[in-house]
Amino acid sequence: MFDLKTRDIKYLQGVGPQRAALLSKELNIASLHDLLYYFPYKYVDRSRLYYIHEIDGNMPYIQLKGEILSFETIGEGRNRRLVAHFSDGTGVVDLVWFQGIKYLMGRYKVHEEYIVFGKPTVFNGRINVAHPDIEQAKDLTLSSMGLQPYYNTTEKMKRSGLNSHAMEKLVKNAFALLQFPLPETIAPKIIEKHHLMSLDEAIRQIHFPQNPELLRKAQYRLKFEELFYIQLNILRYAKDRQKKFRGLYFERVGETFNTFYSQNLPFQLTNAQKRVIKEIRKDMGSGRQMNRLLQGDVGSGKTLVALMSMLIALDNGYQACLMAPTEILAAQHYETIVNLLFGMNVRVELLTGSIKGKKREQILKSLLTGETQILIGTHAVLEDTVNFSSLGMVVIDEQHRFGVAQRAKLWNKNATPPHVLVMTATPIPRTLAMTLYGDLDVSVIDELPPGRKPIQTIHQFDNRRNSLYAGIRKQISEGRQVYIVYPLIKESEKIDIKNLEDGYAHVCEEFPDCKVSKVHGQMKPAEKDEEMQRFVNGETQIMVATTVIEVGVNVPNASVMVIENAERFGLSQLHQLRGRVGRGADQSYCILVTNYKLSEETRKRLEIMVQTNDGFEIAEADLRLRGPGDLEGTQQSGVAFDLKIADIARDGQLLQYVREVALEIIEQDSQGTAVENEILWKQLQALRKTHVNWAVIS
Ligand code: ADP
Ligand code: MG
């Protein structure tokens, strides 16, 4: 049969080896199938004609029908241009070309009827259309033109003549080759039930829509399919895994948990903490392996939830492990947890890369014998030499620094995979979480411990340094500490370090009485940790740093976060940085410093920061402003984010809907054997083969 996927694009009329190489390199288009799935990014309605007296310079692309009255060449050298005065009887516009003058004068004739298509602008008080498309009016019937597709192409492609127009022609050529309708990829029952357009019609309409209504139906069908298979894939995996692994059954909440709760807990749990702990207990007692994502804004008290969940494992005779992304964080968790467990008979150890030799051996041994009940550490705990006697519970803090593969590695440290709790302070909007972690259950701590004063966020232009520094001085004189953060962008790390160094020198000069720390990503980890520790201990009052301090460190005495060049940070990152302050009882401040020139988007970003402290609101806004590809965590999450047509930010409702559809199918056809679903399972298999990343979702 005619298989589009194996049809090399090279042999398509109008392509050839050179263009084939370009298409493959620039747009990943190698086969006819790829070409047909390269969708236009916009459409222009060519079914309507305008009158010249209707148009002005603010309109998008428009279409006129009329005749050329006369030609004129104007200007010299680079400014030399051909102007055709064009009229439809209601007015005159100037068609303008800067290239190919001779050719154009030969090609178009005065007093013949043409249809002209282009973008009107106003120049010297006259309406101009530069480099318009012109076609003979008698060749065209308007209704057959419908909506014209526009395809994104790269600069390189354009230089080889592969512009949107050329792509349009290639797609037409591809359709001309098709002798049969494209084979359907969704089961007929679903198509019928959800009133979907057939694949064949959808693909044709998405390229050459006859009218907006059909375009909408085609888009709906293709989005439905795209999101549906993502959900089917994730849910299928989750189901298979459930079947394969029984979870550890933790029936007891025993002495350790209860002693901690009644004697050691230094404060009342918030209602949100209580609710989440209940959810976790239920998971652990269900006989299924827990895979839970715990989202809670910075400072919401996730550590305590982690600890209490680990104590449940201990009560059932198992060990627990808490993994953090940096040594500093691991050390802080260790200290916090040892303090919280004071007086209780629980052995906790810390394992990081810098713990070596005899100490390390001792820890490893005590893990094997089961003496060490809670292990806290960095990536070091993943190493093959780290083995437990019986690992029942794993907590991963600040999830986005860990890849999926690493998650899986932890599972293998016990014969029956341990329960897993993944904690993140980067709130992920619900729709995105469903796509990324369709298999994880999600708990949310949506309440801060009482008594916190909301952080005040202020946007300040950088010519007002005096008042900024006065504010900092006041805070320091009251015994508080201050962060000053500089952006770090990988491509220009050198410049950024220079920025940081200049900033550091400047701050030292401005605050001669203060001790100033400096931390950046190019320092050795040990140096970095040492400098961080000095700030934590209060030996230094100001911390000048790049975003390396973004994650997790807890310095309750720090009350001011100054972010320089705030325009260069994304929303989630700004929020994360802001979360470094406001951890004590004092009023804290976050100052976003920028220069005057700001884009509209940046202005919006800063406004949102000033308006709200709510991480979820910020995450939603971030998703809207930037799209999911850039969101923190999506790269490492293992999901291919090359969605061709659906948009996670806008198609949340549809996503929810198709998830239900997928769930129903998996529940009704848990073995994947129903004949009516055959197409679905086949298609899923094919997709798993082509999407490398689909295979690793766990
Ligand atoms: P995060 O969720 O950012 O990891 P932490 O677990 O570090 O937050 O908690 C932030 C601070 O709030 C810690 O100092 C912790 O002791 C405190 N805290 C946690 N839960 C409560 C509570 N229920 N009441 C009062 N303070 C709490
Ligand atoms: Mg934390």
Indicate the radius of gyration in whole angstroms. 31 Å
Number of helices: 24
Structural class: alpha/beta
Whole-number total of structural domains: 4
Q: Going across the major beta sheet, what is the strand order? A: 6-7-4-3-2-5-8
The hetero compounds bound to this protein are: adenosine-5'-diphosphate, magnesium ion
Corresponding CATH superfamily of the largest domain? P-loop containing nucleotide triphosphate hydrolases
Write a short abstract of this structure.
The chain is built from 24 helices and 22 strands.
Structure description:
40% of the residues lie in helices and 17% in strands. It has 698 residues and is of the alpha/beta class. A hairpin with a 2-residue loop joins strand 6 and strand 7 (126-130). The structure holds adenosine-5'-diphosphate and magnesium ion. Adenosine-5'-diphosphate (ADP) is lined by residues 267-270, 273, 296, 298-304, 425, 449, 554, 583. The site of adenosine-5'-diphosphate has 17 residues, from helix 12.
Features:
single chain, 698 residues, alpha/beta, DNA polymerase, domain 1, OB fold (Dihydrolipoamide Acetyltransferase, E2P), Rossmann fold, 4 domains, seven-stranded mixed beta sheet, seven-stranded parallel beta sheet, 17% strand, binds adenosine-5'-diphosphate, binds magnesium ion
Topology, pairings included?
Elements: H1 16-27, H2 32-36, E1 42-45, E2 62-74, E3 81-87, E4 92-97, H3 101-107, E5 113-118, E6 120-123, E7 126-130, E8 133-136, H4 142-145, E9 147-150, H5 155-159, H6 164-177, H7 188-193, H8 199-207, H9 212-244, H10 255-264, H11 271-284, E10 291-296, H12 302-315, E11 319-323, H13 327-340, E12 348-351, H14 357-369, E13 374-377, E14 391-397, H15 404-411, E15 419-424, H16 430-436, E16 441-445, E17 456-461, H17 465-477, E18 481-485, H18 493-510, E19 516-519, H19 525-536, E20 542-545, E21 558-563, H20 571-578, E22 589-594, H21 600-611, H22 615-626, H23 652-668, H24 678-690
Parallel strand pairs: 4-7, 10-15, 10-16, 11-13, 11-14, 12-13, 14-15, 17-22, 18-20, 18-21, 19-20, 21-22
Antiparallel strand pairs: 1-9, 2-3, 2-5, 3-4, 5-8, 6-7
Adenosine-5'-diphosphate binds next to helix 12.
